[in-house]
Design the sequence.
């Protein structure tokens, strides 16, 4: 396993993983939609020029072209900003890929508030909700470079249709090559019995890590899970944390409606009703601003998560 | 060897099977099925390098029915070719069938790609043709879209990428039957100047009578000699051609008729063609 500590950004860890896979697997191809310099897929183009295709600003066609390539036995990785990868190409992803049993690995970059200066038009809060509707799809939202690298390898090995949420210019390094990172299995980062915090994605896991420290200073012991795989849901781990803490806080960089929190709430309502709360953007559209402004605006901060978790623990 | 009489006879048999298949179920997309029967016959009985006994052979020519609602005609063609028994045609649209209304590659032997959400099939065909190039497979990809389907923006996204990538192994057809579900295409969103639209996108364009085997053959053979550009063969056709009860109405996209009416329609067609039942 490659160590990602010297790789600058999330996008570079993602592309290093795809490029390493493509070195061994000739059937891997890469499609981009005029955003190759944004994700760094130019590196793939340089290494494997006959297997890179820039489809231009036409995401719907790109995703169905990828499905056609898949039917030829090729394995396409396909990139656009998360807003366009999900919203503009949803029917193609649903029918030509999902319904037609084709395997493509769709990458949506800068999900949620990570879109920052591109603002509301480019800020998907709904991509998890949309992609969750495709039967059998695997969805990941890795929280650091190492898990981005490892999970991308595992997505390829899984042979399943997938959607990846990836930051571009963020650079968290949380894990090492020795960390057990397994597709479909959340990673327990802290253990405590007062409240369970389940966070998905880099922004939320970082904020929740800070929240756990703040809670600890107040004598509140929290379990923290990095839920890097959104589908399939790690129901075993979620159940065990619910049983252990009795209080679950779900934090995601997106909407409540159709999101991870709603999915976990629905699952626990049936299996193990648990006191819950949620940190997400609620009903908001995106807006422009830097990451610090946006995380403050939507409460994606250590202090806010700690405050919600503390109130929940006392319920 | 090109044998027009033999192809005509086969087309008549595919029309019979299609009419009986839909009549057995009681309704279906008869119009757009009947308008592409000569094309299907030509491709499956003359032009395409395929093996019904080995339908997944990697280096086969592929056909994508982007106007996926023409499934019944494609199924009749595949059954007559031996991809599956003709009796299976009587399961069209029944629960659990392998023959759904719209073409489904996960269910039907011989279907190379799923179609039904209009505009997507031609994009997938672009992907397949590109895949043949990437893998250095000497094979062609054929696809057919509707003139109504051409209102989908995705068709033109597919057009621009196919031209950019010089996919000369892609031979597409437009079934220009001038009708869509709600009526005449020209009264809904016109596809006038269709030839120059495709020319403008950088394709090699031909226009023919889609019910004339000699014209289909000339166009396909000519396409194979033109390198560096994808090919669009616009076929002027009659929607419901050969299903006489649907020929003189604009309401022939999907029609309801029973088995008895199907038999009568086949008899009427045979009489018109001067063929004994």
Sequence:
């Amino acid at each position: 396993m490659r160590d990602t500590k010297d790789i600058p950004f999330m996008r570079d860890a993602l592309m290093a993983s795809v490029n390493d896979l493509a070195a061994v697997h000739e059937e891997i191809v890469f499609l981009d939609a005029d955003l190759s310099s944004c994700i760094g897929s130019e590196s793939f183009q340089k290494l494997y020029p006959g297997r890179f295709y820039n489809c231009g600003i036409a995401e719907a066609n790109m995703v169905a072209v990828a499905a056609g390539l898949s039917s030829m036995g090729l394995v396409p990785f396909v990139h656009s900003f998360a807003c366009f990868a999900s919203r503009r190409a949803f029917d193609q992803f649903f029918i030509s890929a999902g319904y037609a049993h084709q395997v493509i690995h769709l990458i949506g970059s800068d999900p949620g508030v990570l879109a920052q200066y591109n603002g509301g038009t480019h800020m998907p809060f709904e991509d998890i909700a949309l992609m969750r509707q495709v039967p059998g799809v695997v969805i990941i939202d890795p929280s650091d470079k190492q898990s981005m690298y490892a999970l991308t390898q595992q997505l390829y090995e899984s042979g399943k249709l997938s959607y990846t949420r990836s930051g571009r210019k963020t650079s968290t390094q949380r894990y090492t090559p020795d960390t057990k990172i397994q597709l479909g299995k959340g990673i327990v980062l802290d253990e405590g019995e007062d409240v369970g915090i389940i966070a998905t994605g880099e922004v939320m896991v970082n904020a929740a890590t800070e929240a756990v420290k703040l809670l600890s200073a107040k004598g509140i012991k929290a379990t923290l899970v990095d839920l890097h795989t959104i589908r399939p849901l790690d129901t075993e781990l979620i159940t065990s944390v619910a049983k252990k803490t009795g209080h679950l806080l779900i934090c995601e960089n997106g909407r409540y409606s159709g999101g991870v929190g709603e999915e976990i709430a629905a699952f626990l309502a049936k299996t193990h009703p648990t006191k819950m709360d949620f940190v997400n953007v609620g009903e908001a559209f995106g807006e422009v601003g830097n990451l610090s402004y946006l995380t403050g605006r939507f409460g994606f901060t250590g202090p806010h998560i700690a405050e919600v978790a503390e109130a929940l623990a006392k319920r | 060897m090109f044998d027009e009489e033999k192809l005509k006879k086969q087309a008549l048999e595919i029309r019979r099977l299609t009419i009986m298949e839909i009549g057995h179920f009681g309704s279906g997309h008869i119009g757009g099925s009947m308008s592409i029967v000569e094309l299907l016959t030509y491709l499956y009985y003359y032009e395409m390098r395929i093996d019904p006994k080995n339908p997944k052979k990697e280096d086969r020519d592929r056909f994508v029915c982007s106007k996926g609602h023409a499934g019944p005609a494609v199924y009749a063609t595949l059954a007559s070719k031996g991809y599956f028994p003709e009796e299976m045609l009587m399961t069209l649209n029944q629960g659990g069938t392998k023959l759904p209304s719209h073409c489904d590659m996960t269910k039907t032997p011989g279907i190379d790609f799923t179609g039904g959400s209009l505009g997507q099939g031609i994009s997938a065909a672009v992907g397949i043709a590109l895949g043949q190039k990437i893998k250095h497979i000497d094979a062609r990809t054929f696809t057919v879209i509707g003139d109504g389907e051409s209102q989908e923006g995705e068709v033109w996204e597919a057009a621009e990428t196919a031209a950019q990538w010089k996919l000369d192994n892609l031979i597409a057809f437009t079934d220009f039957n001038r009708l869509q579900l709600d009526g005449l295409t020209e009264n809904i969103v016109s596809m006038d100047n269709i030839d120059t639209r495709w020319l403008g996108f950088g394709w090699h364009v031909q226009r023919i009578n889609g019910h004339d085997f000699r014209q289909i053959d000339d166009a396909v053979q000519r396409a194979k000699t033109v390198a560096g550009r994808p090919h669009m063969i616009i076929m002027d056709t009659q929607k419901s051609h050969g299903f006489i009860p649907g020929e003189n109405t604009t309401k022939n996209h999907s029609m309801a008729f029973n088995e008895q009416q199907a038999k009568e329609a086949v008899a009427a067609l045979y009489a018109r063609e001067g063929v004994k039942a």
Q: What stands out?
A: The two ends of chain B are 27 Å apart (CA to CA). The interface with chain A takes residues 58, 64, 104-106, 112-114, 116-117, 119-120, 123-132, 134-135, 153-154, 157-158, 160-161, 164-165 of chain B (CB under 8 Å). Chain B has one domain: 4-273.
